[in-house]
């Protein structure tokens, strides 16, 4: 049986005619990395490739673009002024760093912009208005809703399973340790009630949560920070047993975080960008006090945590004190969605072990530095949120449209 290599040898006899095209070692190398291999298989099995290719092309076209009065409008395209070569080198380095990453698109099958345009034209306005009213009196709410959306999407996809109460004595997702500190359920209930009053049985709780999270975070800037395509449907199952292993632990190391995010179709860039959500909100002492008092079981502190900052944290979270006491994750600007998280992270003041671990991988560290040193974080966070909001969505006739977000129909 002639092999494929035999076939290629017949096309490219030795010494090879360099004008004949063939296969690259760099392509074969994609089989040697587990995540790249999984992605190849997914592209081969499904139609996701076409969508994801177009998404990456969109991102590539927007990379490091010069706008406004940066750069110049060349008279001749093939003649550049001295110095422009650095842009080329910059682009090549971004390529080498793998910044062009494969992503699932916002236009994932079944989700579309303005899904409720005909069936409930006011739906998105109601979500926005109600969310804004609530954020106005509770500036901590954006952190609650963003985290709730993340925890929803990482278990069974963005299907509002996190909103369901326990049923038939079976504990639900919300009954588990990481989810017991979620709040904002009442806000989703209020929005749902208002929408049900005008369009009964039409708008899913999953869409309401996804829109409300975006609207809450966008409130201060008064501008939608990313687009939320809609058409999600609600799941009928919520199991406490599925939380462990799907919601990342604050004690995770880099490899664990990378694997968990990869299992949801998210790369290192997404991991770093989305961790940037820790630029707002609070964490309980219980989630990081091990770093202060007993890091390796010998009464020691985490050596990667800035020592002076550790002292301050110890004063806020005394040993054997109340584990439910909260501390700002980004003390300089705890309510402002800025890039300060990356600044303090690089000063070894990331609060959680899972934050600090982002400095332990070369690509991740380069991404942290890039986000700290430029304004690319905001666009990339938005892009990653779009991907997050499309994880495992139920669409078409799957699932249901719940009447109340806390119970299945
Ligand atoms: C990378 C893995 C992650 C881990 C291990 C992690 C873990 C945690 C922990 C332990 C807390 C403190 C909870 C508490 O004590 O109440 C927290 C807070 C928070 N997380 Fe994450 N998180 C991760 C990623 C994310 C992502 C992807 C988002 C959103 C896109 C997010 C958004 C938030 C927000 C906004 C808060 C503050 C919540 C509040 O103020 O109540 N986190 N996270």
UniProtKB/TrEMBL annotation:
It catalyses: 2 a phenolic donor + H2O2 = 2 a phenolic radical donor + 2 H2O. InterPro entries: Haem_peroxidase, Haem_peroxidase_sf, Peroxidase_pln, Peroxidases_heam-ligand_BS, Secretory_peroxidase. Pfam families: peroxidase. Keywords: Calcium, Disulfide bond, Heme, Hydrogen peroxide, Iron, Membrane, Metal-binding, Oxidoreductase, Peroxidase, Secreted, Transmembrane, Transmembrane helix. It comes from the Eukaryota. Binds 1 heme b (iron(II)-protoporphyrin IX) group per subunit. Its cofactor is heme b; Ca(2+). It is found in: Secreted. Residues 22-81, 110-409 form the Plant heme peroxidase family profile domain. Its EC number is 1.11.1.7. Removal of H(2)O(2), oxidation of toxic reductants, biosynthesis and degradation of lignin, suberization, auxin catabolism, response to environmental stresses such as wounding, pathogen attack and oxidative stress. Belongs to the peroxidase family. Classical plant (class III) peroxidase subfamily. Belongs to the peroxidase family. Ascorbate peroxidase subfamily. This is Peroxidase. It comes from Xanthoceras sorbifolium.
């Amino acid at each position: 049986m002639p092999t494929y290599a035999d076939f290629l040898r017949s096309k490219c006899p030795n010494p090879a005619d360099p004008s004949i095209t063939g296969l690259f070692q760099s392509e074969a190398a994609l089989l040697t990395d587990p995540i790249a291999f999984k992605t190849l298989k997914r592209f081969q099995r499904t139609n996701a490739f076409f969508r994801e290719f177009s998404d990456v092309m969109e991102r590539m076209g927007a990379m490091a673009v010069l706008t406004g009065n940066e750069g110049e409008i060349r008279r001749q395209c093939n003649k550049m002024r001295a110095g422009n070569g650095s842009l080329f080198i910059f682009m090549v380095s971004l390529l080498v760093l793998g910044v062009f990453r494969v992503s699932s698109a916002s236009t994932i099958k079944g989700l579309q912009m303005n899904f409720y345009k005909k069936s409930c034209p006011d739906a998105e306005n109601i979500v926005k208005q109600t969310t804004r009213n609530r954020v106005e009196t509770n500036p901590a709410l954006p952190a609650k809703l963003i985290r709730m959306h993340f925890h929803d999407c990482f278990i069974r996809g963005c299907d509002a399973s996190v909103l369901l109460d326990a049923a038939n004595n079976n504990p639900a997702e919300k009954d588990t340790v990481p989810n017991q500190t979620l709040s904002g359920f009442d806000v989703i209930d209020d929005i749902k009630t208002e929408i049900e009053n005008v369009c009964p049985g039409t708008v899913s709780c999953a869409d309401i949560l996804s829109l409300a999270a975006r609207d809450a975070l966008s409130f201060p800037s008064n501008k939608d920070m990313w687009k939320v395509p809609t058409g999600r449907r609600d799941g009928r199952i919520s199991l406490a047993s599925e939380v462990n292993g799907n919601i990342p632990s604050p004690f995770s190391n880099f490899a664990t975080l990378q694997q968990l995010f990869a299992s949801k179709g998210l790369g290192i860039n997404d991991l770093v960008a989305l961790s940037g959500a820790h630029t707002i909100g609070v964490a309980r002492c219980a989630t990081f006090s091990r770093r202060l008092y007993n890091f390796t079981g010998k009464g020691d502190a985490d050596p990667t945590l800035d020592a002076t900052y550790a002292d301050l944290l110890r004063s806020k979270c005394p040993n054997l004190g109340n584990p439910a006491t909260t501390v700002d994750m980004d003390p300089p600007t705890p309510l402002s969605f800025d890039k300060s998280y990356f600044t303090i992270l690089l000063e070894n003041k990331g609060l959680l072990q899972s934050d600090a671990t982002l400095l332990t991988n070369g690509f991740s560290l380069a991404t942290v530095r890039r986000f700290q040193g430029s304004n690319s974080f905001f666009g990339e966070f938005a892009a990653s949120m779009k991907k997050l909001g499309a994880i495992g969505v139920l669409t078409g006739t799957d699932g249901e449209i719940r009447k109340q977000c806390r119970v299945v129909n």
